[in-house]
Amino acid sequence: MLKLMAYLSPYRKRIVAMLVLLFGQTLGTLYLPTLTASIVNDGIVKGNINAVWSGGAWMLGVAVITAAAAIYGTWLATTVSAGFGRDVRGALFRHVQSFSTNNFNQFGTASLITRNTNDVTQVQQAFMIIVSMLLPAPFMTVSGLVLAFSKNRLLALMLLAFMVAILTAMALVAKRIVPIFEKLQVQLDAINRVVRERLIGVRVIRAFNRTDAEAKRTNKTFAQYAGTAIKANKIFAVLLPLVMLAMNLCTLLFVWFGGQQVVSGAMAIGDIMAMIEYAVLTLMYLVMGIAVFMFIPRAQTCARRIHAVLAVQPELQAHVQTPQLSSRDAVVVFDHVTFSYEGAQQPVLEDISFQLHRGQTTAIVGSTGAGKSTIANLLMRFYDAQAGQITAFGQDVRAYPLAKLRAKIGYVPQKAFLFSGTIASNFRHGDAQASSVAMHNAAAVAQIDDFIQDLPAGLEAPVDKGGANFSGGQKQRLAIARALVKHPSLYVFDDSFSALDFKTDANLRRALKGTVTDAAVLIIAQRLSTIVDADQIIVLDDGKIAGTGTHEELLRSCSVYQQIAKSQFSEEELA
Question: Which class in CATH covers the domain with range 415-487?
Fold first, then answer.
């Protein structure tokens, strides 16, 4: 948790003011029993009504000032805590954005969501509780004990014995509860993961009639989490009543032995009341410390989980410096590139070399698992190649900051994803300043503008999460239009035409070819009809290049391409 305290540095002044207020509140709280003893001894016992009124006025004033300090201190603690949570969440989110896919898979989506929500909330709450309840406790207990010794040594020793017993119980509980809370957070990750899978895959679950089985699997994770939480709460359920029993027993002993001291003349009756208040305050702050320990072990676990994410060094960093090449060179060059996924037994790409040139369309085809999408992933730097070099726009891609590299590429992934909002807000992911004219032009090239204009709200038509209110073909065309709005130097279409009918596909490619004459185009496709007119077709087979050329050239020279063509075209079409 201490490693996250650096995020509190912007709030130093507020924290200092908060500590001063807490110190003043503690002093006021400790001063009240002294005033009580004075009123009883000098006013009530001796019958001095003026001492009662003056002492009561002082007590009222001290109580009001103490309450004001407590309220303002709590407000400061809340604002600092909220700001701290906001900053840590922001740091987590920004750091995760720089992760490679390997870094991301190290934790998983469910765990990262839990760490950025529940874990940060636990640390945030722990900070506020520590400041408002735990920090005053040492000063209060020590000061209360000193004041108790100043009144009566015997009763003070009894109070000290109760304090030692409670502290010992707290230490034993802390040792046992930490592993339970660690397990609790891991099980919360599991709940997040299972619920997320069930919601995302609800159609598949229903299609295969697995609703009952998935409900049992979900309930099992809930039951495991509940069992662990109950185990932790049972410990505190036993501990807190024992502590309260100790406090009441201490008060009873104070009254018993204090009464004997009053009878013998060793104490004044007002001092007994002060001793009881000192004991209640001291032990009460120890009880609050026990309550805080319900949060601290769990917050420590959460803090370690947050720090584990922040401590990861992203694989994808601009760490290679290469000389700037001439602008007449190819837009993209793959030079003997080899790549393996983490844990794979053999490379998914091996010794891949090709070039993309401005104004030309290059297509990549191959069977499923041949490594087509991996080329797009390497180009976008979702991964880095283990061997060889990838050059883009005259520099090694590893020499670019990620944002600068990806700003030059218009990428349309296999799964067209739209963000909740409007069609216009989705298009502006490509260009935040895009005008309505530019968006309509891009939509026209993507063969979706007629559909948009028929909508009552046009570009302002709502988009549900993931584009759920559009068909697969509409989502693909909207995603293509979003990339066109960007006007990049390189377009990467990763199997982005698969949901289009042949007529729409042909019209889109024709419009695209007449629009992006100043950019390089890379199309990854399964369907040969999408890429027959490409300037260059690269055929992948088992991670290696099996052939390169135009459609006609490959039909004559590449057996792998011939097999793909025969599976998709009739003999008459091939002839």
Answer: alpha beta
Most confident range (mean pLDDT) of 2-11, 34-43, 124-133, 352-361 is 352-361
Nearest to 163, CA basis, from 286, 272, 291, 26: 286
Q: Select from 132, 103, 189, 139 the least CA-distant residue to 26.
A: 139
For 538, the 3-state DSSP assignment is: strand
Q: Establish how many alpha carbons lie within 13 A of residue 167's alpha carbon, considering only the half-sphere containing its beta carbon.
A: 10
- Strand-pairing partners, residue 363, are 523, 537
CA distances from residue 41 to 32, 150, 495 in whole angstroms, order as listed = 14, 16, 90
> What separation in angstroms does the CA of 105 have from each of 109, 343, 382?
8, 12, 12
User: What are the residue ranges of helices labelled H in 201-333?
Assistant: 202-207, 211-264, 269-293, 296-310
Find out whether 225 and 231 touch, Cβ atoms under 8 Å: no
Cβ neighbours, 10 Å, residue 312: 17
b vs e for 527-557, b when ≥16 Cβ sit within 10 Å of the residue's Cβ?
bbebbbebebbbbbbebebbbbbeeeebbee
State whether CATH 1.20.1560.10 applies to domain 2-310. Answer: yes
Q: What angle do CA 388, 391, 394 make, to 5 degrees?
A: 150
Q: Which DSSP string corresponds to 238-257?
A: HHHHHHHHHHHHHHHHHHHH
The Cα–Cα gap between 368 and 366 comes to: 7
Tokens of 76: 């400061």
Angle at 573 between CA 571 and CA 575, to 5 degrees: 70
pLDDT number for residue 198: 84
CA 45 to CA 270: how far, in whole Å?
Answer: 9
**Burial group, residue 282, by CB count within 10 angstroms (0-12, 13-18, 19+):** buried
In angstroms, the CA 138 to CA 134 distance is 8
Q: 130: closest CA among 2, 267, 305?
A: 2
Decide: pTM greater than 0.70. Answer: no
Q: Do 478 and 426 meet the contact criterion of CB atoms below 8 Å apart?
A: yes
Asked if residue 278 lies in contact with residue 140, where contact means CB atoms within 8 angstroms, the answer is: no
Residue 233 β-bridge partners:
none
CB atoms under 10 Å from CB of 142, counted, come to 11
> In whole angstroms, how far apart are CA 40 and each of 30, 83, 269, 460?
17, 47, 7, 75
The first and second tokens of residue 231, run together, are 């185990």
Domain positions in the chain: 2-310, 415-487
Report the DSSP beta bridge partners of residue 333: 355, 391
**Sign of the Cα pseudo-torsion (483, 485, 487, 488, in order):** negative
228, 183 in Cβ contact below 8 A?
yes
Counting Cβ atoms within 10 Å, is residue 483 exposed (0-12), middle (13-18) or buried (19+)?
Answer: buried
Max intra-chain CA distance, the chain: 122
Backbone angles phi, psi at 325, to 5 degrees: -90, 165
Q: What are phi and psi of 342, to 5 degrees?
A: -60, 125
The token duo for 507 is: 């019209």
Interval 22-66: pLDDT, tens: 778 777 777 777 767 666 666 555 566 776 677 677 778 878 888
The mean per-residue pLDDT over the stretch 404-419 comes to: 87
Question: How big is the chain, counted in residues?
Answer: 575
Q: Report pLDDT digits (tens) over 521-539.
A: 999 988 888 888 888 999 9
